[in-house]
Amino acid sequence: MNDVVIRLKDITKIYNVGGEKVVALDRVNLEIKRGEICCLLGASGSGKSTLLNVMAGIEKLTSGEVIMNEKKVSKFTENQLAIFRQKYLGFVFQSYNLINSLTALENVEMPLIFKRISAKNRRQIASVMLDKVGLTSRVKHRPTQMSGGQQQRVGIARAFVTKPEIVFADEPTGNLDSKTANEIIKLIKQMARENNQTLVIVTHDAGVATFADKIIHIHDGSITKVEEMEEQNEN
Ligand code: ADP
Ligand code: MG
């Protein structure tokens, strides 16, 4: 079995803004292996979010190819993409993107509804996930009744609840203080390691990147350096 899970071939993304061309990604080539914890590191405007969105099939390419799990995702129709995302991908967002009218437990249950799992089983699975992220005592809280760090824990539980092969996180610690950020990154990493899931984290924070197996440096839409990190102590 091939253990490259994401392969990008000559990815270019050009935005047209009022007749002007903005080259957001310029011939990007990249391979990410199964179970790797990768960090896309670069300054604001360097193209990190565009690259992540291209990988996840959210953003259309100008040219090039995205291959995930041996499938040419960049050739998929919207419908095929939606199914693929539900089946294989999880997402963690900078501003958590929780539904404010739902409790923590109900937020985590959401992705399971699309999987046609019975209500009883959904509640059971979601509550195990909330235990794992340390929110056993917050299952009935709504997002506005939780701190940023707690909301992001709910976001992480929701991203992992379907056991996706790949989890994408765009600036997951961008709205958090540095101590909480550290805890959140450790938690995402621990969750991914548990089932050998692949994790792609976007950040402008070099401190966050120290947790990665692989740091992909981006500058002006190009990958300038890929650093493979030494095996490190998981604690
Ligand atoms: P980062 O996430 O590293 O801050 P982005 O990927 O958001 O950077 O943006 C990369 C470049 O592409 C920037 O110059 C940005 O202005 C431009 N860009 C991003 N999204 C759009 C868009 N929807 N339309 C036009 N230009 C965009
Ligand atoms: Mg961004």
SSE topology sketch:
Blueprint: E1 4-17, E2 20-33, E3 37-41, H1 48-55, E4 63-68, E5 71-72, H2 78-88, E6 89-92, H3 104-113, H4 119-132, H5 148-160, E7 166-170, H6 178-194, E8 198-203, H7 206-209, E9 214-219, E10 222-228
Parallel strand pairs: 3-8, 3-9, 6-7, 7-8
Antiparallel strand pairs: 1-2, 1-4, 4-5, 9-10
Helix pairs in contact: 3-4, 3-5, 4-5, 5-6
Bound molecules: adenosine-5'-diphosphate and magnesium ion (MG).
Magnesium ion (MG) binds at residues 48-49.
- Mean of the pLDDT scores? 95
What fraction, in percent, of the residue positions are helical?
25-40%
Uncertain spans: none
**Count of runs of 4 or more consecutive helical residues:** 7
CA-CA gap between termini: 30 Å
Query: How would you characterize the largest beta sheet?
Result: 6 strands, mixed
Global morphology:
globular
What percent strand? 25-35%
Structural class: alpha/beta
Q: Could you explain the architecture of this structure?
A:
The chain has 235 residues and is α/β, with parallel strands linked by helices. Helices cover 33% and strands 29% of the residues. The chain has 7 helices and 10 strands. The protein has helices at 48-55, 78-88, 104-113, 119-132, 148-160, 178-194, 206-209; strands at 4-17, 20-33, 37-41, 63-68, 71-72, 89-92, 166-170, 198-203, 214-219, 222-228. The strands form 2 sheets. It has a 6-stranded mixed β-sheet with strand order 6-7-8-3-9-10, sandwiched between helices. A 4-stranded antiparallel β-sheet has the order 2-1-4-5, with helices on one face. Strand 1 (4-17) and strand 2 (20-33) form a beta hairpin. The radius of gyration is 18 Å and the shape is globular. The chain starts with a strand and ends in a 7-residue tail after the last strand. The structure holds adenosine-5'-diphosphate and magnesium ion. Adenosine-5'-diphosphate is lined by residues 15, 17, 22, 24, 42, 44-50.
